[in-house]
């Protein structure tokens, strides 16, 4: 019987990473949302898109934090960038949950 101990202390929620070895997403910057063992759920490090509705109000059109993709921690390299999301549907919830 083997036990694997992963040192995932550096991969915390809210950390910005660069995808290094995925054919489809290589070079993309992502933000970690959840970590499970050697696997991380991440969303794209892009700003929230807004639009003006019929009443002339500015509303959120798309929040990238609502779409999570899974990556192996071996495929992620930590960068020192700051997450671009500061508003959107879940901004208040994310700040409370991630302690930002």
Give short descriptive properties of this protein:
100 residues, two-stranded antiparallel sheet, 1 helix, mainly beta, five-stranded antiparallel sheet, 7 strands, disordered N terminus, 34% strand, globular
Question: How would you characterize this protein structure?
Answer:
This protein is mainly beta. Helices cover 8% and strands 34% of the residues. The strands form two sheets. It has a five-stranded antiparallel β-sheet, with no helix packed on it. Strands 4-5 form a two-stranded antiparallel sheet. The longest helix is centred in the last third of the chain and has 8 residues, at 91-98. Residues 1-5 have low confidence and may be disordered.
Write the layout of secondary structure elements.
Layout: E1 16-19, E2 29-36, E3 39-44, E4 49-52, E5 58-62, E6 69-72, E7 76-78, H1 91-98
Antiparallel strand pairs: 1-2, 1-7, 2-3, 3-6, 4-5
> What shape does the CA trace take?
globular
Strand neighbour order, sheet with most strands: 6-3-2-1-7
Q: What share of residues is helical?
A: under 10%
Q: Report low-confidence residues grouped into runs of 5 or more.
A: 1-5
């Amino acid at each position: 019987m083997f036990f694997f101990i992963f040192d995932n202390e550096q991969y915390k929620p809210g950390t910005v990473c660069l995808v290094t070895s995925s054919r489809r997403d290589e070079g993309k910057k992502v933000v970690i949302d959840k970590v499970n063992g050697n696997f991380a759920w991440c969303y794209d490090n892009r700003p929230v898109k807004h639009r003006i509705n019929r009443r002339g109000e500015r509303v959120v059109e798309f929040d990238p934090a609502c779409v999570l993709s899974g990556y192996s921690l071996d495929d992620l390299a930590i960068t020192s960038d700051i997450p671009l999301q500061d508003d959107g549907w879940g901004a208040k919830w994310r700040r409370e949950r991630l302690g930002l």
